Amino acid sequence: MIIVLEPDSDDEVLAAVVRQASNYPGIQTRRHVIRGTEHTVSEVYLLGDTKSIPTEGFEQIPGVRRVVRVAAKYRIIGRHGVAAESVGFEYNGVRFDERQVHLFAGLCAVDTRPNVEATARALQAAGIRTTRMGVYKPRTSPYDFQGLGAPCLPWVFELAGKYGIRVIAMEVTDPRQLDEIGRALEEAGRPTGVMLQVGTRNAQNFELLKRLGQQQEFPVLYKRGMGISLEESLNACEYIASEGNPRIIFCLRGVKTHLGDPHRNLVDFAHVPVVRRLTRLPVCVDPSHATGRMDLDPEGIPEIFHAIGQGVISGAAMALVDFHPDPKVALCDGPQALTLEQLPLLVAYTRGVRAAYEAARQLFAPPAGEVRSA
Ligand code: PEP
Ligand code: MN
Which pTM does this prediction carry? Predict the structure, then answer.
């Protein structure tokens, strides 16, 4: 059961809700705070067997907006009728919600300092404050480049700060890496922020997921499992949230089947609206790992652009895109990397598709004065 408080309500209301909950043995409470641009909404989750608890006792408390009986299995990440305004979070000065799109353009794998610097400089020139930088790389073959690991963190963070990057999506493959990242950020003087990425290969690594949920410092970018159902991936996000960290973005990145040939994966971006309907997680798409190739259509538009477009036109809030100053020599995933010269084109393209999505939303907007119940 979820008790939703009025926006910006004070601790008295919270205390009254917790007091009311204490009348029911075996029920625990957990508070979730959703910070929007204008308001902060607190919710109190009643954990335990709440079936026989009447809602009236909570509804009568002044300052309680409504009480939601959660039938769905995604207790924390579930949408539960929550409107768009309550979706998302802010991290390091960047707002992640359903009202804007962030391009996380950057290196699949950090290789050299000059390449990180060239990429960060191009991002700044394009007005982008978010990037991807892989440092711990999970590779199919043990003989492939495994990433530079912790030693490169100091200069990656330094360069990110130098070029105004606020958030770096960085995959972690082992809980110990959270401490390495936290320490390096601290030692560098926190010039930037990190969004911890769970790769598709770790989509059901429950110990890693729990560890990511037990910290609140970093938000989490969860990449859907390539060989498991959507439901299983959403349950994995619920693991993170149920441990205490609801700041999660759900990333679609294609699923593994030869039916997607010649793409690396079968592009699954038709699931963007499904994830938005079922959960309140902002949705990301990764067109680079989904398509895996740099082919062009007959007009010269890269297929990767078309894949991003499919995600953005459906309401994706973020796209993770591989770039490299010289894809031919990239140590990881060069064949799918865009060049830095293509970055301004991608920005313009994404802006155009987003405008089309906004127009589509207007077509379905409720008549003036009516509010859509999500
Ligand atoms: C990546 O984003 O670098 C990556 C390895 O992606 P995925 O886990 O989706 O394969
Ligand atoms: Mn990659």
Answer: 0.89
